[in-house]
């Protein structure tokens, strides 16, 4: 009897979920567009900032190093949501300058992730063997040449896995931009809940979408990592299925 | 418009009460994360249950905290305080991270230690309690400390479920007097004021207790 009841409940639940997804899918797809935009924009800005600030942190100039330290310490200490509120509400409060909500979100997330990324870049550059640097000096290479063709290619393979984790963290962090009015997946879920009162389906489906995005990112990052390792002639898993090995440990989000 | 110092002083008590809620959420959430994370790391080693636990926590780890917060907030009965919901969700979310940290620590214990336990035929509770965990946990104190800071910086998300923490307080008083700029800037400063010294404190503790 109980088994029958349970099967009935499960069946009803499945039918309800399918019905819910069928009607709300376009709204979630529209939201997904903004989640992807925010992830791409934040990752691009964060990457550029991480490279510039990270390299500045390894130079001999004391002023540049000080700038890098102040930047990383400040933006690793503040939460991305606070930065976002600051950009979205505080700046328009005192100036005539207003951000689009999506731009405010991208800037806040990019600046935040850039601070973590800068530390990753700095660590990776410092991890390049000393002899490599000495060789570039012996060959009388210019600074640009040394960075571009010797140090960065080696540091790249070192920083990729951590960058990958940061981008996944960033993708998850984009959920907060709904709080400043961007119509992302989270927004679609809020909308679905308030119009259908189906809390479990509304947020459950959002969770599933974020999960799928995270898995796609993990897969793409492995492709990139494998490419970087191959170029350096380092061994890595072979074949398509090796890309599906269990995920490595996430260290992002707390790289303080 | 220029910075209004008088207003800044006026809203400080409100912000301080928000900061207190933020700190409470962090401390209790972190306690849950430390204990539950260890339990998850150990459960993951069991045959069938382990795979199930792994799947559940992998899902928690790959989905945003904000969505989880709102999801649980709307599911539990209204009688449960938002702060309680916030602490629970924060704790469970971060336990998915700390479990990975513990796991790496346990896997980092040398094989010889396990072999020695077997050679001495120690009972399981002694193996874990006296040999493996003391070494594993000392090794992972630095990453665990990182997650304390990370969690502190994630507490503004409780804003979404109406917990009167720092960001909500700032939003409220700032909106009341149309001076969001001062309120929000103070929030940022307070965050730095708490997180940078605690990062330094954690580094000190590490130097004393963590094994290299």
List its traits.
heterodimer, A: 256 residues, mainly alpha, 77% helix, disordered C terminus, B: 212 residues, 9 helices, 0% strand, elongated
Polypeptide structure, described:
The complex is a heterodimer of chains A (256) and B (212). In chain A, 77% of the residues lie in helices and 0% in strands. Chain A contains 8 helices and no strands. Chain A has helices spanning 2-56, 62-77, 80-94, 101-126, 130-138, 143-173, 185-196, 199-231. In chain A, α3 packs across α4. Chain B has 212 residues and is mainly α. Helices cover 81% and strands 0% of the residues of chain B. The termini of chain B are far apart. The model of chain B has no long low-confidence stretch (mean pLDDT 89). At the A-B interface, α2, α3, α6, α7 and α8 of A face α2, α3, α4, α7 and α8 of B.
Question: What is the gist of this entry?
Answer:
The complex is a heterodimer of chains A (256) and B (212). Chain A contains 8 helices and no strands.
Task: Write the SSE topology.
The complex is a heterodimer of chains A (256) and B (212).
Chain A: H1 2-56, H2 62-77, H3 80-94, H4 101-126, H5 130-138, H6 143-173, H7 185-196, H8 199-231
Helix pairs in contact in A: 1-4, 1-7, 1-8, 2-4, 3-4, 4-6, 6-8, 7-8
Chain B: H1 5-43, H2 48-61, H3 65-75, H4 82-108, H5 111-119, H6 124-139, H7 141-154, H8 166-177, H9 180-209
Helix pairs in contact in B: 1-4, 1-7, 1-8, 1-9, 2-4, 3-4, 4-6, 4-7, 7-9, 8-9
Greatest chain-chain contact: A-B, 46 and 51 residues
Distance separating the two termini of chain A: 55 Å
Helix content of chain B: over 70%
Q: Major β-sheet of chain B, in short?
A: none
What is the succession of H and E elements of chain A? HHHHHHHH
Low-confidence stretches of chain B: none
């Amino acid at each position: 009897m109980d088994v029958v009841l349970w099967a009935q409940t499960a069946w009803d639940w499945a039918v309800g979920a399918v019905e819910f997804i069928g009607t709300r899918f376009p709204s979630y797809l529209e939201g997904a567009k903004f989640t992807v935009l925010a992830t791409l924009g934040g990752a691009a800005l964060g990457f550029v900032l991480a490279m510039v600030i990270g390299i500045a942190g390894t130079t001999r100039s004391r002023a540049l190093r000080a700038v890098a330290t102040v930047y990383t310490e400040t933006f690793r200490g503040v939460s991305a949501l606070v930065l976002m509120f600051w950009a979205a509400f505080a700046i328009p409060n005192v100036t005539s300058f207003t951000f689009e909500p999506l731009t405010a979100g991208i800037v806040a997330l990019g600046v935040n992730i850039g601070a973590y990324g800068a530390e990753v870049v700095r660590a990776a550059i410092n991890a390049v063997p000393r002899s490599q640097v000495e060789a570039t000096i012996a060959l009388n290479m210019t600074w640009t040449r040394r960075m571009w063709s010797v140090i960065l290619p080696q540091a790249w393979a070192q920083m990729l896995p951590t960058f990958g984790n940061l981008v996944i963290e960033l993708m998850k962090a984009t959920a907060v931009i709904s709080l400043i009015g961007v119509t992302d997946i989270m927004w679609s879920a809020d909308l679905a809940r308030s119009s259908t009162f189906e809390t479990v389906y509304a947020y459950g489906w959002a969770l599933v979408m974020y999960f799928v995005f995270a898995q796609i990112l993990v897969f793409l990052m492995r492709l990139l990592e494998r490419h970087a390792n191959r170029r350096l002639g380092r061994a890595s898993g072979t074949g398509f299925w090796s890309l599906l090995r269990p995920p490595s440990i996430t260290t992002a989000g707390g790289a303080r | 418009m220029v910075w209004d110092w008088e207003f800044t002083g006026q809203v400080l008590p409100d912000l301080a009460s928000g900061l207190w809620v933020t700190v409470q959420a962090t401390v209790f959430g972190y306690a849950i994360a430390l204990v539950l994370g260890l339990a998850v790391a150990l459960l993951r080693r069991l045959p069938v249950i382990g795979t199930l636990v792994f799947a559940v926590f992998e899902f928690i780890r790959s989905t945003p905290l904000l969505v989880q917060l709102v999801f649980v907030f709307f599911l539990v009965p209204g009688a449960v305080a938002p702060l309680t919901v916030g602490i629970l969700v924060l704790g469970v979310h971060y336990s998915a991270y700390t479990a990975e940290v513990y796991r790496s620590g346990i896997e980092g214990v040398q094989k010889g230690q396990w072999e020695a336990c077997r050679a001495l035929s120690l009972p399981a509770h002694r193996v874990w309690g006296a040999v493996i965990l003391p070494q594993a946990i000392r090794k992972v104190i630095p990453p665990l400390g990182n997650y304390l800071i990370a969690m502190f910086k994630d507490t503004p998300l409780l804003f979404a479920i109406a917990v009167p923490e720092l960001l909500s307080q700032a939003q409220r008083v700032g909106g009341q007097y149309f001076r969001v700029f001062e309120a929000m800037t103070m929030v940022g400063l307070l965050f730095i004021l708490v997180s940078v010294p605690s990062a330094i404190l954690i580094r000190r503790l590490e130097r004393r207790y963590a094994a290299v």
